[in-house]
């Protein structure tokens, strides 16, 4: 399979995942945070459903002074107000029919049963349908569910909404050289991806699978790779593997994928760092994302391919990348896209970071994302370039 340019690889992965997007389900709005609307959210009633006072005060009709005849609190039903009368209303209460104005509590004087005061120029109540009409689309399908969306659904009268759940994700860490605890040394290095990747996936919109996020280090032999991949795919929509994406003597991912009947969506990408990244589809509409073993390259692969994979499975569009202005020059990488770690200052300028080798995490820990230097180009100070955000990156 030919190496793809970086933009094409992202689009191919998103398209493949969109064709396999997760089956919708219905849930209470409060249970859907982080999911994606599978159907448009429409208004089940006009919003507001009745004329509603936006202040504490007195609904009046006709010229003042007015005779105080009652009170309407939030949750109570209002009737018609008579000319020359005032009815005390609370914020959020239904206003009486026939009112001319509402005099704010702080602008009113009450003496006995008489109310005097001057209404303000702007009406002090919200009219039926002011926010939306009956059946008006409030939010389209594909909208990520946030706490504000949950509140909107409840306001609109929904007891359940139709959503696509978060894709379930597993992380498999390959490598006999990895240690899960203690200080590195004597030929062994500390596993950084096992602790890091599940949190990146969570911030990217996936749901880590218990017991498989992470699992490893996995022994460097083909049988172990096949067995753990098969087990993870029983529960996960996306399995992210770290290491083994090349064709060295202990790189068993490719033959394991062949044994499992996988088909490549992307196999190597013209990007630096992280070019030996891959995504493969498997029966049952499952995917394996092969991430390189070096930490920074693995994060490049996750941000480049796994984020579009999550978006497609969730039924979300792949949004255009934001842009930043470079504070300094960044060299290009010849015919490949160069993803350069940057931090942003208080003015929004993007500063290239040091310590950006494929195996280094020091620069990554301070980064907001990667400046995208296009193939055949170099980044120049003052230039506007695309930014590939790092899920949960530094501010």
From TrEMBL:
Biased composition, class Basic and acidic residues, residue ranges: 119-130
Metal-binding is among the record's keywords: yes
MF GO annotations: metal ion binding; molybdopterin molybdotransferase activity
The enzyme's E.C. designation: 2.10.1.1
One GO-annotated biological process of the protein: Mo-molybdopterin cofactor biosynthetic process
Enzyme class: transferase
Function text: Catalyzes the insertion of molybdate into adenylated molybdopterin with the concomitant release of AMP.
Protein's name in the database: Molybdopterin molybdenumtransferase
Lineage, top ranks: Bacteria, Bacillati, Actinomycetota, Actinomycetes, Glycomycetales
């Amino acid at each position: 399979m030919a190496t793809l340019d970086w933009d094409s690889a992202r689009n191919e992965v998103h398209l493949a995942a969109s064709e396999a997007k997760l089956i919708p389900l219905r849930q209470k709005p409060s249970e859907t945070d982080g999911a994606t609307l599978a159907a448009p959210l429409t208004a089940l009633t006009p919003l507001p459903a009745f004329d509603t006072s936006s202040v504490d005060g007195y609904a009046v009709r006709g010229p003042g002074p007015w005779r105080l005849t009652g009170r309407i609190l939030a949750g109570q039903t209002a009737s018609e107000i008579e000319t020359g009368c005032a009815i005390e209303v609370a914020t959020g209460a239904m206003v009486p029919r026939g009112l001319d104005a509402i005099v704010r509590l702080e602008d009113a004087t009450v003496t006995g049963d008489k109310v005097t005061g001057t209404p303000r120029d702007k009406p002090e109540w919200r009219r039926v349908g002011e926010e939306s009409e009956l059946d008006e689309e409030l939010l389209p399908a594909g909208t990520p569910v946030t706490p504000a969306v949950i509140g909107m659904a409840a306001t609109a009268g929904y007891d359940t909404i139709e959503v696509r759940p978060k894709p379930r994700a597993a992380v498999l860490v390959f490598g006999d050289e990895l240690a899960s605890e203690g200080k590195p040394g004597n030929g062994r290095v500390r596993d950084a991806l096992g602790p890091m990747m599940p949190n990146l996936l969570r911030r990217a919109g996936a749901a880590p699978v218990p017991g498989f996020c992470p699992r490893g280090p996995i022994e460097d032999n083909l049988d172990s790779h096949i067995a753990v991949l098969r087990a993870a795919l029983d529960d996960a929509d996306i399995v992210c593997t770290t290491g083994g994406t090349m064709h060295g003597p202990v790189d068993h991912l490719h033959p394991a994928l062949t044994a499992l009947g996988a088909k490549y969506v992307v196999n190597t990408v013209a990007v630096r760092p992280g070019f030996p990244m891959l995504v493969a589809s498997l029966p049952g509409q499952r995917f394996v994302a092969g991430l390189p073993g070096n930490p920074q390259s693995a994060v490049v692969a996750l941000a480049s391919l796994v984020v579009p994979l999550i978006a497609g499975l969730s039924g979300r569009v792949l949004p255009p990348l934001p842009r930043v202005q470079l504070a300094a020059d960044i060299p290009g990488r010849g015919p490949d896209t160069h993803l350069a770690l940057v931090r942003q200052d208080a003015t929004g300028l993007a500063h290239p970071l040091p310590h950006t080798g494929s195996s280094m995490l020091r620069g990554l820990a301070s980064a907001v994302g990667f400046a995208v230097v296009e193939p055949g180009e170099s980044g120049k100070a003052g230039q506007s370039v695309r930014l590939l955000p790092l899920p949960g990156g530094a501010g």
